[in-house]
């Protein structure tokens, strides 16, 4: 197991190296002159000590834009490895500080949505497979297809219209209410939690459909296997057949899906956070992309790449946990 893990980590580092090189090449060849725009902005600020030409030279040197693609990439990589990701052009603070200020909101939102997604989708998928071609199965199928097909912006608009405009129970957007500063510590916690309800519901609804269908399909395949019929013929209780024999063998494909969900826990929900004006990492990355904030974009894409590789590694390691037949050697 240790040898396999170390080998996969080394492969992941190599893959990350080339992924970031591709991202750097794309940034290097962007048609819009974001660096020129930033240099012009810095030179035009009140009290600026450098001219446009000086700022342009400094920024090009900082990101290796004056050295060619390969040499520039290694210049940027050296700074990134040492933790120097530069200052965000959009937020005017170090990139790592803006990341720290926003990522935990996204993590809490993603974790809550992920937990409810599992608690809702997997049991419904198993129930639909157990009662194939029944009303429950058809109803679950229709609900899952609606969830899969529903656009995020449409669902978010409907929820805001019902619960904010018509009923007035929740705020339209934001992360704090008007009286936030006058509340106690517990009141502030409840106020922030209330603002997470609509974004969480949006993420859960659009996510459960796919996992529900995936669980149902894999469960049906397992329930039709010979060893399940043998267990039933031997008089094993149906509850044990479903929850022990069948479900354990359904976990392998589910582990693949859930392991790939790791990036979404930290990467933020770009569309959802933007629609509800939640200052998470998804909202920050969207704002940075629209404003050409190259330092933050490079950091964000590197972060997503690392999470994706880590999620794949965790999925492979969990195979041996859920299925004793899998041996890593």
Mind sketching the topology for me?
Layout: H1 2-28, H2 34-44, H3 52-62, H4 69-81, H5 95-130, H6 135-149, H7 152-166, H8 185-195, H9 197-223, H10 226-233, H11 238-259, H12 262-267, H13 270-275, H14 281-290, H15 294-322
Helix pairs in contact: 1-15, 2-3, 5-6, 5-9, 6-9, 7-9, 9-11, 11-15
Structure report:
This protein is mainly α. Helix content is 75%, strand content 0%. The protein has 2 domains: 2-81, no CATH class; 101-322, Orthogonal Bundle (MetI-like fold). The chain has 15 helices and no strands. Helix 1 (2-28) packs antiparallel against helix 15 and helix 11 runs antiparallel to helix 15 (294-322). The longest helix is centred in the middle third of the chain and has 36 residues, at 95-130.
- SSE order, one letter for each helix or strand: HHHHHHHHHHHHHHH
Could you say what the CATH architecture of the largest domain is?
Orthogonal Bundle
SS-based structural class?
mainly alpha
Mean pLDDT: 82
The general outline is: globular
Q: CATH superfamily membership of the largest domain, which one?
A: MetI-like
Query: What is the overall number of helices?
Result: 15
Radius of gyration: 25 Å
In CATH, what is the class of the largest domain? Answer: Mainly Alpha
Major beta-sheet overview: none
Count the E strands: 0
Unreliable sequence segments: none
Provide the number of structural domains: 2
Q: What is the CATH topology descriptor of the largest domain? A: MetI-like fold
As a percent range, the share of helical residues equals: over 70%
Percentage of residues in strands: under 5%
Give the terminus-to-terminus CA distance: 7 Å
